Amino acid sequence: MGETKKAMSSPPLSPPAQPTTSPAPAPPPLGPGGFLRWMWRQLTSMRIALILLFCLAVAAIPGSVLPQRGIDPVLVNAWISDAPTWGPVLDRLGFFDVYAAPWFAAIYLLLFISVIGCVLPRTMHHIRALRTNPPPAPRRLTRMKEYRQFQLATSADEVLGNVEAQLRSRRWRVSRGGDLEQGWVAAEKGYARETGNLVFHAALIVLLIAVSYGSLFGWRGNVIVREGGGFSNTLTQYDAWGAGRMVSPDALDPFSITLTDFQVEFDRDSTQRGSPLLFEADVIVAPEPGEPTFTDVIRVNEPLSLGGAKVFLVGHGYAPQVIIRDADGRVVYDDNTIVLPQDGNQTSTGVMKAPDALPQLGFQALFLPTAAVDAVRGPHSTFPDTDDPAMFISAWIGDLGLDDGIPQSVYRLETDAMTQIGLRAIRPGEVWQLPDGVGSVEFGEIQRWASFQIAHDPGKEPALIAAGAALVGLMLSLFVKRRRVWIRATTGVDGDTVVEVAALARHDETDLTDDVDAAVAAAEGRDR
Q1: Of 37, 76, 179, 201, which sits most exposed with the smallest number of CB within 10 A?
Q2: Other residues' Cβ atoms within 10 Å of the Cβ of residue 372
Q3: How far apart are CA 317 and CA 310, in angstroms?
Q4: How far apart are CA 77 and CA 486, in angstroms?
Q5: Are 296 and 285 in contact (CB under 8 A)?
C-alpha cells in the first residue's frame, strides 16, 4: 500500500527531448564578380533575347506612326505646333527621331549583345557535338519509340557491316562497337537542324550590324523637280534630308540631274481606269562638274546609279503656271506652282504667296486635272490626266507672317493675320480680277513635276545576304528532324543472329517508320 502511494506520488515522466536542428546556413553574398556573372547569364538567355526583340519592335512603332525629323522636319514642326501639349513632351523624349534616340540605341545594343552571348556558346557546343561519335546502343532498346526484332541466318558481323555501309551511303553519322558475337551500330542524322538554327541567329547578328552600319553611314533625300528644271546633289537642294551620324554633307558626290521630260500615260479602261501605264523621266546627268553629260531614263523600280547613290522615281504631279498682279498691275508672282496630289485622280492642293504685293496676297489652290463638282464631294478630279483642268482658288489679303523670321512651309498658308476676300474657279487662259481692285490672278500653262528619292545605303547588300541566310537557316531548323537509330546484332544459341532495331527522335511528332524500315532492309542485305 505504501509502495503504491509512493509510486503514485512520484513525479510524472517528462516527454522525450526533441532533436535540435540548426538552421541552414545562409548562402554567401554574390559579390561584384558573382553579380556580374549572374547578370551576364540573364542577358544571354534566350528568354531575354526574345523580350528585347519584342521591345525593339514596340520601340520602332513611333518611328512608323509619327513623322521623323530625318525624313520630313517641316511636318514634325507642324505636328508639334498642332499639339502644343503633347508635341514638346514627345519631342524631348525623342519620338520624332526614334532611330537616333538613346533609348532605342540601348535596346538595340542590348539585343545585339544578348544574341551574340546566346549564339557563341551554342556554336562551340555544336562544333564539339559534330566531332563526337553517336552514343552506343542503350541496354534496353525496347523502350524506344520505334522498335523491331527479328532473326537472320547471316552472321552478326555481316549484318552490322551491311547496316554500316548502307547508313554511311545515306549520309548518316555512324559509329560501331562490340565484337563478333554481339555488336552494335549507332547512327545519327539531323544535325543540320541545329546548324540552321545557329545560321539563323548568326545571320540575325549580321543583319543588325548591317542595319547599324547603314544607319551610321547612309543618307537619303527627297526632291521635287519640274520639267525643264534640275537639282544638284547638295544639302540645300533637297526638300527633305536624312543622314546617319557619320555622314558629312560636304562629302556628297557632286552630280546634277536635269529633268527634260516627264512622260505618263493612264489607263482609260473601265477596270483599271486611272492607273499609270507609262511612268518615266527623261534626264540629263552630269556625274561631276566639267565631265561630259549623258542622257538616261528613270523608271519605277529602275533607278539610276551614280557613284554610291541611287536615284529613284517615286512620284509625280502637276505644276500649273500662276501669274499674280498687284493693284498697280505689276507682276509680283509668276511661277509654275507645285501642287501636291491628295488622291489617285490627282486632286491636288497648293499655295501661292505674294509678299511683294501691297497689301500682301496669299492664295490656296485646289487643282483638278479633270474637274467635277457635286453636292457630296464638292470640287474633285475624276481622272488623273488633264482632260478638263480647272483650279479653285481662295484669295486672302493681310500679313503673310514672312517678316517674323520664322520659317514656313511653301505648301502651307498661315491665315491667322489674313482675311479671305474671294473664292473662284478658273481655267487655263482665264484671269480673275480680285475684289476691290487689289490685283488679279491668271491661270497659264500646265507643267508636270517628278519626285525623286536619292539614297545611299551601304548596309543594304550585307543586309540582303544576311536576310537570305536567315531564311535558309530558318527553313533548316523547321523542316530537318534530328533522330538516332541503333542496330544490335547478337548470335543466338541456335546459330542465328538476333537483330534489334530501334529509333529515337528529338521531337515526339517525328515519324521514324521510314528510318527503321531502311535499317531493317540494310540488315537483311537488300536495297530499299
Answers
A1: 179
A2: 16
A3: 21
A4: 71
A5: yes
Q: Cβ contacts of residue 450 below 8 Å, gap of 6+?
A: 224, 225, 259, 262, 281, 313, 315, 316
Cell numbers placing 127? 562544333
- Look at residue 6 in the predicted model and tell me its pLDDT: 42
Query: Among candidates 101, 25, 29, 16, which has minimal Cα distance to 63?
Result: 101
C-alpha cell at 308: 554610291
Question: Distance between CA atoms of 390 and 347, rounded to whole angstroms?
Answer: 10
The three cell numbers locating residue 163: 547496316
CA-CA distances (angstroms) from residue 390 to 348, 362, 406, 424? 11, 19, 33, 10
Q: Enter the C-alpha cell of residue 256.
A: 546634277
359 upstream amide cis, omega within 30 of 0: yes
State pLDDT tens for residues 215-251: 888 898 889 999 999 999 998 899 888 788 888 888 8
Q: Do 199 and 469 form a contact (C-beta atoms < 8 A)?
A: yes
Please check whether residue 390 is in contact with residue 356, taking contact to mean a CB–CB distance below 8 angstroms: no
Q: What pLDDT does 10 receive?
A: 47
Q: Where are the beta strands (DSSP E) in 457-520?
A: 483-491, 497-505
| pLDDT at 279 (0 to 100) | 87
Give CA–CA dist 476/493, Å, rounded: 46
Asked if residue 113 lies in contact with residue 43, where contact means CB atoms within 8 angstroms, the answer is: yes
Q: Read off the DSSP letter of residue 339.
A: B
> Looking at residue 347, what is its pLDDT?
94
**Please, are residues 488 and 499 in contact by the beta-carbon 8 Å criterion?**
yes
Bridge partner list, 390: 368
Q: Which residue has the higher pLDDT, 74 or 129?
A: 129
C-beta atoms surrounding 3 within 10 Å: 7
Under 8 Å CB-to-CB from 187, ≥6 apart: which residues?
134, 167, 172, 173, 174, 175, 484, 485, 486, 487, 519
- pLDDT tens column, 294-306: 999 999 889 999 8
Say yes or no to pLDDT of 282 above 70. yes
Q: What is the Cα–Cα distance from 506 to 61, expressed in whole angstroms?
A: 38
In angstroms, the CA 62 to CA 113 distance is 24
Q: CA-CA distance, 174 to 189, in Å (whole number)?
A: 9
Q: Which three cell numbers stand for residue 207?
A: 543583319
pLDDT at 2: 44
